[in-house]
Amino acid sequence: MKVTVVSRSGREIIKGGIQLNDSATVSDLQEAIHARTKKYYPSRQRLTLPLNPGSKDKPTVLNSKTSLCDYCDAKKDNLTVVFKDLGPQVSYQILFFWEYVGPLVIYPLFYYLPVYKFLGYKEERVIRPVQTYAMYYWCFHYFKRIMETFFIHRFSHATSPISNVFRNCAYYWSFGAFIAYYVNHPLYTPVSDLQMKIGFGFGIICQVSNLYCHLLLRNLRSPSGNGGYQIPYGFLFNIVTCANYTTEIYQWLGFNIATQTVAGYVFLVVAASIMSNWALAKHRRLRRLFDGKEGRPKYPRRWVILPPFL
Ligand SMILES: NC(=O)c1ccc[n+]([C@@H]2O[C@H](COP(=O)([O-])OP(=O)(O)OC[C@H]3O[C@@H](n4cnc5c(N)ncnc54)[C@H](OP(=O)(O)O)[C@@H]3O)[C@@H](O)[C@H]2O)c1
């Protein structure tokens, strides 16, 4: 079979095309493109079927595990695919590691080092119990996330564009510094003892629940990450599609009840709105995949992320 690889503007990427045997898969084609171009390793390549001129449809993305013949016209033994360079890639583990290690390191700097003296505060800094608990709570959260990244999550995509590392690090690192600055500030006013205990107690329950949600999601896939998207069941997933995001939002609420800073609440609102958008997309995807037609199960009625509002 001959495969012609063109750019979106129609320019031939591999001069003369690529000759492959009839049983070749999309993955074999990606390896062949890599062998001819070196720069474009498989995870950098996005291959789609060409669209008819003027078509507004979304192009079909070729699945690496599928046989190329499945995308061919029955009568033809040649195929044209459209190539897009996704740019340099990093693994999801590397992406998540860098975005979480920032807040894990930055926050304790504000607690342990004489940052405020350096910034011009002359008085002796008295560390309140709530500031100490907040530092442990914060570090536990990001340490847990790094551990989950390496030992629990089973990602369906191997890599992400390297530009996401800079964008995500900017988000997590700057919010980490912003919150740490205010919670550890020498002029910080602590909340009452009872409020602190309620906040941290509730937050810890939510962090443990969040870990349990991630274990339930993990069991939906095989260790290789195969299995696609399944209907999550059990615990809070029986009532809400993205129970992992629900518990994540509530654990930040717990932190904010205990520490009470504007910076912390701003982060809560931004994080909740980001996760709500993602949750809506995930909810729609599961409803589309499990539509109850042609033998497929029907997605049960559930809240998206924050019952009883959404
Ligand atoms: N504070 C914040 O701003 C913020 C923002 C986002 C996330 N977080 C935290 O980070 C955690 C991880 O975030 P995430 O966005 O990566 O979570 P996620 O996509 O909801 O899920 C985590 C893992 O479970 C898999 N998964 C999800 N739904 C599945 C389904 N129906 N069937 C099979 N597998 C499924 C995902 O696979 P895929 O690889 O296919 O996605 C991913 O590997 C969150 O749960 C939350 O605790 C915090």
UniProtKB/TrEMBL annotation:
InterPro entries assigned to the protein according to its UniProt record, in alphabetical order: 3-oxo-5_a-steroid_4-DH_C, SRD5A/TECR, Ubiquitin-like_domsf
GO biological process, one term: very long-chain fatty acid biosynthetic process
Any single Gene Ontology cellular-component annotation: endoplasmic reticulum membrane
Subcellular localization: Endoplasmic reticulum membrane
GO molecular function: oxidoreductase activity, acting on the CH-CH group of donors
Domain 3-oxo-5-alpha-steroid 4-dehydrogenase C-terminal: 159-309
Family per record: Belongs to the steroid 5-alpha reductase family.
Pfam families listed in its UniProt record: Steroid_dh (PF02544)
Keywords: Lipid biosynthesis, Lipid metabolism, Membrane, NADP, Oxidoreductase, Transmembrane, Transmembrane helix
Major place of residence: endoplasmic reticulum
TM helices/strands, residue ranges: 94-113, 165-183, 198-217, 229-250, 262-280
Protein name as catalogued: 3-oxo-5-alpha-steroid 4-dehydrogenase C-terminal domain-containing protein
Membrane topology: Multi-pass membrane protein
